[in-house]
Amino acid sequence: MENLIQFNPNMISLALPILLLVFITLWLRNFARRNPFPPGPKGLPLIGNLLSMKTLTHRSLAELAEVYGGLCHLKMGQLHMVAVSTPEMARQVLQTQDNLFANRPATVAIRYLTYDRSDMAFAHYGPFWRQMRKICVTKVFSRKRAESWASVREEIGSFLKNVDARIGSSHVNLGEMVLGLTRDITYRAAFGSKSEEGQEEFLRIMQVFSKLFGEFNVVDFMPWLGWINYQVGDLNKRLDRARRSLDVFIDKIIDDHLEKKRNRKNSDGFEDDMVDELMEFYDENGGKSDLGSAMRITRDNIKALIMDVMFGGTETVASSIEWAMAELMKSWEDLTKLQQELADVVGLDRNVHESDLDKLTYLKCVVKETLRLHPPIPLLLHETATDTVVDGFKIPARARVMINSWAIGRDKNAWDDPNTFKPSRFLEGGAPDFQGSNFEFIPFGSGRRSCPGMQLGLYALELTVANLCHCFNWTLPDGMKASELDMNDVFGLTAPRAVQLVAIPSRRLTRLI
């Protein structure tokens, strides 16, 4: 009998792991009961809500928020997605737990086309991302650099002359012309080229990249289907062709800048562009950068960062300019107020200069109201680094989190008459600003992943809108009434107008200077 109950240490060593496993299982079950996923539409077995993926726009997510609240959960195959649609939930994600939501999601296509996240936009939060952001903030997007970019002012001047030359024609496609303007500004700022040499080729590459970035790939949601997905083989070939075309184009530009760098000592006639700024951190032999710092970047980093700037500085700014002009043409009272302010501050004998911008209070209100109703990027994408809890709901690691800045800017609990264009609301004391601390107004995001190019984007937006309103009077074509103006948008990376803005200009100034 004594042998049966004799103490055996090996039994304890075997029992402890089993007891620990039972404890963890019970704890996880209890955690799941206490912290469920946020509410959301029920999906199908295995694929979840995947069939509705292509219909998940900023508008449809705002409609889901009306039913399920400011935190809505969807399951896309194996991927968890969470839509954040109210200021209160945005504050919890972007401020309270900013460090846990600072990663960026990336599809198979995005990872490949950004050289495995060698850029700043899609790099995960960490030392590499901090280095990339520091380079962009101190060099590429610095306000000091913006003031020295004569190219911005010169391109806007050429753009105004092009508009002026079309006075007397039936109409002007303002949307198309504005997109051309922002492409010219960004291309010239990036590569320093005043000619159109190579520009068409680069724009073609951008269009291919843009299409591949947004293309649906089931492997992003159900990786285990990759081996039977017929789409993957063709997609991989197109991804490879696209990246090789970018390699050929930008490698030549980098080589030209290296040659310019070697000859710089013998000449003072060089004007720095964005590639020059990035080359300060690049050494073709793999040594330290020219600045003697530990920061070094590769050719892949330069290529990926240039694509960040081209995508971030072209369609987003053009869309905002076009929306501002459309809203003003729909609200003639506000256009009249703005033109009166421009006449009072600037006069009717010259264009608007950069030095005038800070004196144009109502212009600032018009821009803010445009960004509230039409944020440059309607869905700001984040990814969770670890499992976490928001407002009592479980958000798993690697969940894709969509901050619906479009819905937040129209939240009826945060804004009076939220769907109406009313720039005067920003004249009131205590009106929200877009610096990132007022979570009812986050067109540029907030926290660690807020837009580093905000100041440059605003600079181009304000100067262009001010000059379009100051230099010209505008009427709608074919006797169209303001109430008939189509104000629908098209969802994508940005949310541009569904129908490009067409209007008839007439000269307002005695001359363009």
**Biggest sheet details:** 4 strands, mixed
Distance between the termini: 109 Å
The arrangement of helices and strands along the chain is HHEEHHHHHEHHHHHHHEEEEHHEE
Mean pLDDT across the residues is 87
Description:
The structure is a single chain. The N terminus is likely disordered. The termini are far apart. The strands form three sheets. This protein has a four-stranded mixed β-sheet with strand order 1-2-7-4. A three-stranded antiparallel β-sheet has the order 3-9-8. It has a two-stranded antiparallel sheet with strand order 5-6. Helix 8 runs antiparallel to helix 12 and helix 9 packs antiparallel against helix 10. It has 16 helices and nine strands. A hairpin with a 2-residue loop joins strand 5 and strand 6. The longest helix has 34 residues. It has a single domain, classed as Cytochrome p450, CATH 1.10.630. It is of the alpha+beta class and 513 residues long. It is globular.
List the helices and strands and how they pair.
Layout: H1 9-34, H2 58-68, E1 71-76, E2 79-84, H3 87-96, H4 108-113, H5 127-140, H6 143-148, H7 150-165, E3 172-173, H8 174-191, H9 199-214, H10 230-263, H11 274-279, H12 299-330, H13 332-346, H14 361-373, E4 379-383, E5 388-390, E6 393-395, E7 400-404, H15 405-408, H16 454-471, E8 472-475, E9 502-507
Parallel strand pairs: 2-7
Antiparallel strand pairs: 1-2, 3-9, 4-7, 5-6, 8-9
Helix pairs in contact: 7-8, 7-16, 8-12, 9-10, 12-14, 12-16, 13-14
